[in-house]
Amino acid sequence: MVEDKKKSQGLSRRQFVAGAGAAVAGAAVGGVMASQLVPRKAEAAAGIPKSGHIKWDPDKCASCGRCLMACAAYRESAVAPQLSAIKWAENDFLYGFRFRKPLLCKQCDSPECYYACPKKDEALCIDSATGARYINKDKCTGCGACIEACPFDVPRINFDNESNKAIKCDLCKDRPGGPVCVEVCDKGALTFVPKEGRV
Fold it and tell me: Which of 23, 31, 110, 168 sits a CA distance of 20 to 30 A from 102?
């Protein structure tokens, strides 16, 4: 009886040691495989410049929509929310009324939209000076690949059905005063974080 118990304990120990060894070996092999399967685009991201981004403070936001209108007016010379590079989420209620919040492009370090564009560096580009990820409307074919690739549940890229072009925030890269949405926000809910301050 005692001998049987020892045998069963010895067997359990051997199984444990064998299992532990297999686990260690599996982890080592998995680690090697994982290191070899690092996405090429993540590696490429190290070679592209970082960009600043616009930060939203919900505690200061009045949900007025001035940023939305200013964006469309500056970019398209039209008071047309659908032409703004800022999208809105309108399904949040606060104190009994509908509270809208701006959905801003994050200017991702590894921009999925940029890698997905079949005309990368022509239609979807990265500004060498500011790092802003932007759309060149003259080259955009309206394929929608950038919108599909955006990692957010609500894509941060809009679409103009009339011109059949994608619309994306470019941080007003050619505007001396910086992003117009930040300038018109009198509540200070939007601030521009330069690429040097990006974490």
Answer: 110
User: Angle at CA 110, nearest 5°, toward 106 and 112?
Assistant: 80
What pLDDT digit, counting tens, does each position of 102-159 carry? 999 999 999 999 999 999 999 999 998 889 999 999 999 999 999 999 999 999 999 9
The CATH classification of domain 44-197, taken from the options 3.30.70.260, 3.30.70.20, 3.90.1150.180, 3.40.50.11540:
3.30.70.20
Q: How many whole angstroms separate alpha carbon 157 and alpha carbon 104?
A: 9
Low-confidence ranges of the chain (pLDDT < 70): 1-46, 91-98, 199
**How many Å apart are CA 94 and CA 99, to the nearest integer?**
6
